[in-house]
Amino acid sequence: MTRARLPDRRPSLTMQLVYEANTYAVTLGFDVANERVGEVFTHGAKIGSAMDRMLDDICVALSLLLQHGVLPDALASSMGRLGDGASPASIIGALADLIAKEPQT
């Protein structure tokens, strides 16, 4: 599937995500044409740190997957889980869960 480029102006929603006692600000941008989340941005790690740079790359990868048609539920269900079977094993899984739980437009 080809990439669905998002319009320059689009609705977004910013919320908090707490993962392993760290709080992150997560902004979801909506792809109105496809009625779902189309991009994700995350901040909360120390600026310039390895975690900050990793979060930037994670968000680019998740956004590209969404813009290429991967459904939020498919992303979330593909992520690793802790022993309880429900808790995400990484911040990537926590972001995917958040995207999947967000009502699509």
TrEMBL record:
It is an enzyme of class 1 (oxidoreductase). InterPro entries: TSCPD_dom. Residues 21-100 form the TSCPD domain. It catalyses: a 2'-deoxyribonucleoside 5'-diphosphate + [thioredoxin]-disulfide + H2O = a ribonucleoside 5'-diphosphate + [thioredoxin]-dithiol. Its EC number is 1.17.4.1. Pfam families: TSCPD. Coiled coil: none annotated. Belongs to the ribonucleoside diphosphate reductase class-2 family. This is ribonucleoside-diphosphate reductase. It comes from Afipia carboxidovorans (strain ATCC 49405 / DSM 1227 / KCTC 32145 / OM5) (Oligotropha carboxidovorans).
